[in-house]
Amino acid sequence: MSSSPQPRRGNTRQLIQDVALELFAEQGYEKTSLREIAERLEVTKAALYYHFKTKEEILISIFDDTTRPIDELIAWAGEQPRTLATKKEMLRRYSEAMCSGGQLYRFMQENQATMRELSIGETVKKRMLKMVDLLRTDEAPLPNQVRCVSAIFTLHAGMMFLQHVEADPEETRLAALEVAMDLITRAHEEG
């Protein structure tokens, strides 16, 4: 049985994304070429070009597909009252979205310099600032604003920095979510 991926009929774009992200994670974005992606897929470079012209196009497509739930969350949250229940639901959904895109988020964490150089780096920054704005209140005492920001980054810590802890990944995610919920609850109650 071959360990290389076999093309899935009708889902070539997704297969390219999967293989590219796998290679980016293995050897880094900068060190991965389109030729290597094509070779891993067992297709010609021309066949790969039919779907994507550059590595950045591939990474942007992965990013867009994987982070769509976060854009939907931000749109949803923007239409909701800024209640504690809304903020908790935001954190719950954000945690789930990060979990479902774990490989991409770990890649982004490990390749921060590359991310800053690519166009999606600015998108990530804007999205994070919007999430913070939806969680915090300008009039709240500064410690409570810090708690709101910390709630988001607690979820990041659970995903990125606790991946090597000897625990079930879902338990780790839920523990980070619990701490984030505690932070947002305290900020809301004292705000």
Write up this protein.
By secondary structure, this protein is mainly α. It has two domains: 42 residues, Orthogonal Bundle (Arc Repressor Mutant, subunit A), CATH 1.10.10.60; 125 residues, Tetracycline Repressor, domain 2 (Orthogonal Bundle). The protein is 76% helix and 0% strand. The chain is built from ten helices and no strands. Helix 5 packs antiparallel against helix 10 and helix 9 runs antiparallel to helix 10. It starts with 11 loop residues before the first helix and ends with a helix. The N terminus is likely disordered.
Give the topology, please.
Blueprint: H1 12-27, H2 34-41, H3 45-51, H4 55-78, H5 84-100, H6 102-110, H7 112-117, H8 119-135, H9 142-160, H10 169-190
Which regions are unreliable across 5 or more consecutive residues at pLDDT < 50? 1-9
Form type? elongated
Write the H/E string, N to C.
HHHHHHHHHH
CATH topology of the largest domain: Tetracycline Repressor, domain 2
Instruction: Work out the number of β strands.
Output: 0
Strand content: under 5%
Rg from alpha-carbon coordinates: 19 Å
Task: Kindly give the count of domains.
Answer: 2
Structural class by secondary-structure content: mainly alpha
End-to-end distance, in Å?
A: 59 Å
CATH architecture grouping of the largest domain? Orthogonal Bundle
Whole-number average pLDDT? 87
Given this structure, which CATH class of the largest domain is correct?
A: Mainly Alpha
Number of helices: 10
Main sheet specs: none
Helicity range = over 70%
